[in-house]
Structures are given as structure tokens and as C-alpha cells.
């Protein structure tokens, strides 16, 4: 059938599924077949192109690495964080400027502005929380990184708790940083170069560069001081015995005079005892010809010499002291004293 076959409107609509706007017109069969073939070709090409595009997208996703994704997400999170920080800084600067501009007369208005500042702080906290939420909602993988950070923080807390646990009893103690450090005091003899101590007076007799101190020679040279001490003792005794003078003095002054009298007497007695000990040792060395004496022998010689030079009352007191010492030693040796 070489001729052209004509169809009506209803027949064409059954095959092609389309209606034409022209009323009561006829279409050629060849034109309809061509249109169908062309539409099929276009559909097949589009399907191929779509498949190729999907394959390209899959290839691009396969080339992207896990590290690149994480770095990109970190950068986005940092950008959001910087923006939120810049906003907070601007708000803080505006607050500081407003505080500086305030005058003492505006003290009444400060109470009313307290609620506003609280609302601003709430808004700041909300903005910070929003920024954190935005950083966390960037992608599903960012949650993974946040979980790793939280796990690290938990591990650090566990380590801190383990360190704060009670140590072994034999472990060395650690001094706290709150305790004050002891002050290092300056010793005058050590700081020779300082101007503070270089100008001060120094007694050559007690300087270590001149060797050991010879107490015997010093005592001979300054023996006249004993006369001054005796005069001082007599004066204090006369003052304390005179009731007219003591009536004008306070109790504190009287106690000071009494203490001064006792101290000067004890100094004189100690100096006299030392002189006597030196004399005893010197005489013993001259008699025996020995240059060195043991400490035990020296102590015995001094005790015997002192006992011989004592008067009757002094000897009795010395004997009583010795008797009390012996009794104390004997009591310590008894069993009932050792009981708890």
C-alpha cells in the first residue's frame, strides 16, 4: 500500500493518545510513526544521559576521602564559631561603652536596667547554644567527631580522679601551693659586700680571721668591769630597800629592777666559777706537767676543788642536791613507777 491512508480523529487518539486542536482534520500515518520514533529516541538518549550523570556523581563521591570531609566540616564549624564570638565581642564593647558613659546620677536607673542585662545575657547564651547546634547539625559525620572529643574529655576526667586518689602511706608528701614560703632572713656576718653591714662597727676580738678566742686574756684585760657590776648590784639593793622610792614606782618597774639584780649576780657568779676552773686546771698542769687532761678527770678536779673552797652552808646545800638526785634515780628504778 503505497498510497497514504487517512484516519479519523478517534482512530488517531487510540494509537497516539494525543488530541489535536484542529477540528475534523486528518493526519498521515507516516507523520505519526515518525513522531513516535523520534520521541522514543529522545527518551532513550535522556535515560543514557541521566545514567551517565549518576555514574559521574558516584565517581566524584568515591574520589572524596574521609579526611577531606572532616576538614571541611571543621572549617565550617570554626567559621560559625568565629561569627558567634565576634557578635559577643560587639555586645560586650557596647556594654562597656554604655557603662563608661553612665554618671552617678544614673544610679537609680541601674536597678531598672538589671533586668535588661539579664535578658541580654540570656540572649548571649541562646546565641552561643544556637551556634553550637548549627555546628553540630552540619552533617551526620560531625556528630562522630564530637563523640570522639567527649570520649577524650571523659578519659581526662578519669585520669584526674585516679591522681586525686589516696596515695600510698610511704609516698613522699607534696607541699600545697597555698602554704606560705618561709622568709629567708639575712645574717649580718654573711653579707660583707652590702653597704648595710660594711659601715657597721665590728669587734675584732670575736672575728674568726684572728683565730680562736683566748678567754683568759680577755678576762684579764676586762676584769675592771666586775667592779662596775658590784656597784650596780649595791645601787639596786639600796633602791629596793628604800620604801620612799618604791612607793613612787610601779609594780612593773620594781619587777624590772629585781630581774636586773638577779641577772647581774648570775653573771658575776658564772664569771667567777670560770676563773676558778681555769686556775684549778692551770695549777694541776703545773704540778703534774701534763699538757692535756681528759674531760672526766677535769670534771672531778673541779668538783673537789669547789667542795673544798665552799663554806659550811654551801656544802650542806650541795649535799642536799646530790641526795635528791640519787633519790630520783632510785625511784625511777622501782617497778610501780613503770606501770601504766
Automatic annotation (TrEMBL):
Residues 8-20, 62-73 have a biased composition (Polar residues). Residues 91-103, 149-165 have a biased composition (Basic and acidic residues). Residues 1-179 are annotated as: Disordered. It is found in: Nucleus, Nucleolus. InterPro entries: RRP36. It comes from the Eukaryota. Residues 52-61, 104-135 have a biased composition (Acidic residues). Its main location: nucleus. Keywords: Coiled coil, Nucleus, Ribonucleoprotein, Ribosome biogenesis, rRNA processing. One of its GO terms (biological process) is maturation of SSU-rRNA from tricistronic rRNA transcript (SSU-rRNA, 5.8S rRNA, LSU-rRNA). GO terms for cellular component: 90S preribosome; nucleolus. Associates with 90S and pre-40S pre-ribosomal particles. Component of the 90S pre-ribosome involved in the maturation of rRNAs. Required for early cleavages of the pre-RNAs in the 40S ribosomal subunit maturation pathway. Belongs to the RRP36 family. This is rRNA biogenesis protein RRP36. It comes from Candida boidinii (Yeast).
Amino acid at each position: 500500500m503505497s498510497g497514504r491512508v487517512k484516519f479519523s480523529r478517534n482512530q488517531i487518539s487510540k494509537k497516539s493518545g494525543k488530541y489535536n486542536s484542529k477540528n475534523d482534520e486528518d493526519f498521515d500515518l507516516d507523520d505519526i510513526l515518525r513522531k513516535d520514533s523520534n520521541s522514543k529516541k529522545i527518551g532513550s538518549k535522556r535515560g543514557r544521559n541521566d545514567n551517565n550523570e549518576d555514574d559521574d556523581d558516584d565517581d566524584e563521591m568515591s574520589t572524596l576521602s574521609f579526611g577531606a570531609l572532616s576538614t571541611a566540616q571543621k572549617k565550617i564549624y570554626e567559621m560559625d564559631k568565629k561569627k558567634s564570638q565576634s557578635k559577643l565581642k560587639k555586645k560586650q564593647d557596647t556594654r562597656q561603652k554604655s557603662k563608661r558613659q553612665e554618671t552617678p546620677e544614673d544610679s537609680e536607673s541601674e536597678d531598672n536596667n538589671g533586668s535588661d542585662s539579664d535578658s541580654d545575657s540570656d540572649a548571649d547564651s541562646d546565641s552561643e547554644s544556637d551556634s553550637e547546634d548549627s555546628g553540630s547539625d552540619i552533617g551526620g559525620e560531625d556528630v562522630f567527631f564530637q563523640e570522639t572529643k567527649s570520649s577524650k574529655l571523659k578519659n581526662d576526667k578519669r585520669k584526674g580522679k585516679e591522681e586525686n586518689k589516696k596515695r600510698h602511706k610511704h609516698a613522699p608528701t607534696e607541699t600545697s601551693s597555698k602554704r606560705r614560703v618561709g622568709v629567708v632572713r639575712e645574717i649580718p656576718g654573711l653579707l660583707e659586700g652590702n653597704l648595710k653591714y660594711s659601715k657597721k662597727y665590728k669587734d675584732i676580738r670575736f672575728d674568726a680571721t684572728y683565730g680562736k678566742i683566748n678567754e683568759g686574756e680577755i678576762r684579764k684585760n676586762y676584769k675592771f668591769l666586775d667592779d662596775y657590776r658590784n656597784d650596780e648590784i649595791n645601787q639596786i639593793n639600796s633602791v629596793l630597800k628604800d620604801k620612799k622610792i618604791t612607793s613612787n614606782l610601779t609594780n612593773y618597774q620594781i619587777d624590772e629592777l629585781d630581774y636586773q639584780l638577779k641577772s647581774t649576780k648570775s653573771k658575776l657568779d658564772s664569771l667567777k666559777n670560770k676563773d676558778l676552773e681555769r686556775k684549778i686546771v692551770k695549777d694541776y698542769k703545773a704540778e703534774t706537767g701534763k699538757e692535756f687532761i681528759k674531760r672526766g678527770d677535769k670534771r672531778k678536779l673541779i668538783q673537789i676543788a669547789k667542795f673544798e673552797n665552799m663554806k659550811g652552808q654551801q656544802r650542806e646545800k650541795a649535799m642536799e642536791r646530790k641526795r635528791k638526785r640519787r633519790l630520783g634515780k632510785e625511784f625511777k628504778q622501782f617497778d610501780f613507777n613503770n606501770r601504766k
